[in-house]
Amino acid sequence: MLENTVPSLRPGYFTKDSLGPDAVEFYRSQGYLVVSDALDRKNVAELVEETVGICRGDRGEFSKEGTRPDYLAQAEHMSDEEVQRQLLCIHHPHKMSAVMRRYLAEETIVNVLTSVIGPNVKCMQSMLFIKSAGKPGQAWHQDEDFIPTRDRSLAGAWIALDDATVENGCLWILPGSHRPGILWPMHAHTDKRFDCTHESHRFPYTDADAVPVEVPAGAIVFFNGYTLHRSLPNSAPRGYRRVLVNHYMSAESLLPWQVKQDTPVAQLDYRDVVMVAGEDPYAWKGTEDLARAHVRADGHGGCADGRKLL
Ligand SMILES: O=C(O)CCC(=O)C(=O)O
Fold first, then answer.
1. How far is the CA of 142 from the centre of ligand 1 (A)?
2. What is the pTM of this model?
3. Tell me, what DSSP letter sits at residue 76?
4. Which domain range does residue 144 map to?
5. Distance of CA 140 from the midpoint of ligand 1 (Å)
6. CATH number, domain at 259?
7. Which of 89, 197, 246, 260 lies 20 to 30 Å from 148, alpha-carbon distance?
8. DSSP one-letter string for 29-47
9. For the segment 95-122, what is each residue's pLDDT rounded down to a tens digit?
């Protein structure tokens, strides 16, 4: 656990026992909330063990730009530390790991999401960040820029597998930045502190308005898809800042994401989804198995300066 901090006393920090209307109100007004004791040590150990198994290639193939990452051929001769240092982020680990899939519908996640989204909730994405010492962070962005819902219901559940501190690259949030419901412009950046995704800019907040969301391992940070957030590099001398981030939305909304453009625009609906609560009003469409676990390559938009980080 984090030393010398009492996360549950900070604004927006709750425990499983203290979740209730105040937590929902905080999420609605500030765009995030923390449940600092969501997972116990056993849960965290299980997810960490699974992370190592995934990085070793023991849970099946994952590709980097369509090819198998080179290090996997040598993985059996590498230490747990070495295999984890090879990757910054794996998308869709739930597609290769039954353990990761089980945590999509973890009890606290379902409890919070049914309070802040509604009774019917679906998940469309998971991401496993390893972020070992020296790896970059993610620049300011809003997740709805990448995963567009039609009712602004997108929410991330950011599950800390290590204590996340300012030093090792915890999440930073601009409180209340979801409220205007505006998607700010994005551009490619050349800031070497960050992975190569594009960054949001021209919003009316400064870095001084941001709060670091330091949390102990086992905490879950929930944040709205319009909330501006970023993380800084892992500048600790060693170790990781591992986190499993799952994304959810209201099952009532269609999901015009990663879908064939020959469909009429109003009907675009990505159906590789997992219901985690309630009823799926579109169950008659069935679901599809489209996504594959893959390594994040050069970010969503490519590196402005041609860097290869992974
Ligand atoms: O944890 C991080 O480094 C960034 C996470 C993030 O940007 C996200 O989940 O959208």
1. 10
2. 0.93
3. G
4. 8-295
5. 9
6. 2.60.120.620
7. 89
8. HHSEEEETTSS-HHHHHHH
9. 999 999 999 999 999 999 999 999 999 9
